[in-house]
Amino acid sequence: MTTVITFPVHEDADDLAAASGAPRPLTVQRIAVTGYTPQDAPPVKLLPRPVTVDSRAPAGPAAVEAAHWQSDPADDSRVDAIARSVTQAALEVLGGTRPLQQMARWLDPDSYERLQLRANLVRSRNAAPAGRTGGQLPAPVRLHRQVVIRCCRICPVSEGVYEASVVAAEQNRVRAAALRIELRRGLWKITALEIG
Q: Is 95:169 a contact under the CB 8 Å cutoff?
């Protein structure tokens, strides 16, 4: 019995690899072939990828339209600008150079409360405990915290929903942030904000 290795053809694998920067995935399937000797084995053949049908997926024109959905370039640039500015503002809130109330327009209530809690924890950690200063003046507080956005990548999830990852550099460290941005009642809102 001879084993022939076949490489399935992934029509969208090249698009995914180009979009993510990853190499094209390679999958190997073993197929038992009878009636051949190792000397006259057939050459490697490319087989089309098997199509799997999900019984839970909707069928019809709506499913075809959803599969070929493309994001609007105007929305992409708007969401990119929002992700950059909200990340910079959130890091400034954590640094104590921006009031948290300025974030109320952009964050949903859960994200706003989480950022408020984190800012309070950072502020209490950085504050000198009472009675431990030893008669010395506390260290001067920087009035301006320089936050520079290094890069931002956005990924449209569905219509009106984006996810973004942002890399920001402060004076002595580099931080990453992940955001989920959704269009709600005509306004872009941050529904999830994670800062590393």
A: no
**Phi-psi domain of 33 (left: phi exceeds 0; alpha: psi -120 through 50; beta: other):** beta
**Farthest-apart Cα atoms in the chain, separation:** 93
Only one residue has tokens 């057939």, namely: 42
Listing DSSP states for 56-118 in one string gives TS--SHHHHHHHT----HHHHHHHHHHHHHHHHHHHHHHHTSS-GGGGTTTB-HHHHHHHHHH
pLDDT for residue 192: 93
Structural contact between residues 97 and 141, judged by C-beta atoms closer than 8 angstroms = no
CATH number for the 73-124+145-195 domain, one of 3.40.640.10, 3.10.450.50, 3.40.50.1360, 3.40.225.10? 3.10.450.50
pTM above threshold 0.90: no
Cβ neighbours of residue 82 closer than 8 Å, sequence gap 6 or more: 106, 181, 188, 190
